[in-house]
Task: inverse folding
């Protein structure tokens, strides 16, 4: 089977490349630029449609997106183009070739209404910022297209690749005597390799058919960005930095982020028989890998 991966040079794209090593399927890794990928700009509807037809693609895994949450506040048009319009291109192209779209969305589709129980898949999206709103529009574009699709909402992704919170905090806790990190935004980190392994498992075992719909996938457990930072510092041995909790309004940012966006993973675990690692166990694995680079 031919499987097209978009955003192949991003965090999740790279982790999917690791997961798919040795697969009997033909994975085509694409991105808008960079080495080791076939060039594909997902905002170009004709190019997407040609790529799908000429390679008889039966599954698209869309790992491409506009992911700069702060910048999106001033760059709404481009965020909408990538996170919604381009998603429609992918949905229409895969529908025309009778395939399935696996799309990645975010916990930031939630948050305006303050919850204190983990968010379920059928809960109404109430984004607090432009990024979350454009990602919600992407989900809606898929529904409107009528293509076969599985949408995985995930949260707080980190990995050995690209820019992410773990790498930022490894650097800051090693170089700053003191750090203030918000403790009033609560969610769950996700090691991108765990999500990539889960997606690979679903494709490899051909579990897409009959299981179309929306799923939540993060690591297990709950923490604030402050707790996350404390564990990053502890596991990396950066014990000199004095890490203090602060409120969101003490950390300058244009965007209002969700105060609570923990995802309920009951559905994904039941349907696909997945075992989801606890967040600190995965964090330890990633830091070991980063330290051995
Ligand atoms: N990062 C996170 O914390 C979270 C991410 N998600 C979602 O998970 C998915 C994967 O995220 P992640 O791996 O972190 O994303 P990254 O930002 O690491 O990767 C996205 C990739 O998409 C590429 N891209 C940008 N524009 C285009 C385009 N026009 N055509 C094709 N590719 C393009 C980027 O290239 P370039 O770098 O050159 O722009 C980059 O390589 C996304 O859908 C994201 O919304 C969900 C929850 C949390
Ligand atoms: C660096 C730093 C950040 N923070 C805060 C800012 C913010 O509220 C929180 C997280 O910062 P970030 O900018 O890394 O987070 P952010 O880019 O908002 O991360 C989000 O990315 C998108 C793509 C998603 O889909 C989400 O699931 C989520 O992972 O930590 C501090 O309080 N102190 C600090 O020193």
Result:
């Amino acid at each position: 089977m031919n499987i097209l991966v978009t955003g192949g040079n991003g965090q999740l794209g790279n982790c999917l490349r690791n997961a798919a090593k040795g697969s009997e399927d033909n994975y085509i890794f694409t991105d808008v630029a960079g080495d080791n990928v076939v060039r594909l700009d997902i905002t170009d509807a004709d190019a997407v449609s040609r790529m799908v037809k000429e390679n008889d693609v039966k599954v698209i895994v869309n790992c491409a997106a506009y992911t700069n949450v702060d910048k999106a506040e001033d760059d709404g048009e481009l965020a909408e183009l990538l996170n919604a319009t381009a998603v429609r291109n992918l949905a229409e192209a895969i529908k025309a070739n009778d395939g399935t779209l696996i799309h990645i969305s975010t916990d930031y589709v939630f948050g305006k209404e303050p919850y204190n129980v983990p968010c379920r898949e059928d809960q109404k999206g109430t984004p607090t910022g432009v990024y979350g709103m454009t990602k919600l529009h992407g989900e809606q574009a898929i529904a409107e297209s009528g293509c076969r699709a599985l949408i995985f909402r995930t949260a707080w992704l980190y990995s050995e690749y690209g820019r992410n919170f773990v790498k930022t905090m490894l650097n800051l806790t090693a170089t700053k005597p003191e750090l203030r990190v918000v403790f009033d935004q609560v969610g769950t980190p996700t090691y991108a390799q765990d999500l990539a392994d889960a997606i690979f498992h679903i494709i490899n075992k051909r579990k897409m058919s009959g299981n179309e719909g929306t799923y939540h996938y993060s690591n297990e457990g709950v923490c604030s960005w402050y707790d996350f930072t404390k564990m990053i510092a502890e596991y990396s041995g950066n014990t000199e930095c004095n890490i203090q909790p602060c409120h969101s309004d003490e950390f300058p940012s244009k965007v209002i982020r969700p105060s609570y966006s923990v995802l309920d993973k009951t559905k994904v675990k039941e349907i696909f028989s997945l075992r989801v690692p606890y967040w600190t166990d995965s964090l330890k694995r990633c830091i070991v890998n980063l330290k051995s680079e």
User: Anything to note?
Assistant: The two ends are 33 Å apart (CA to CA).
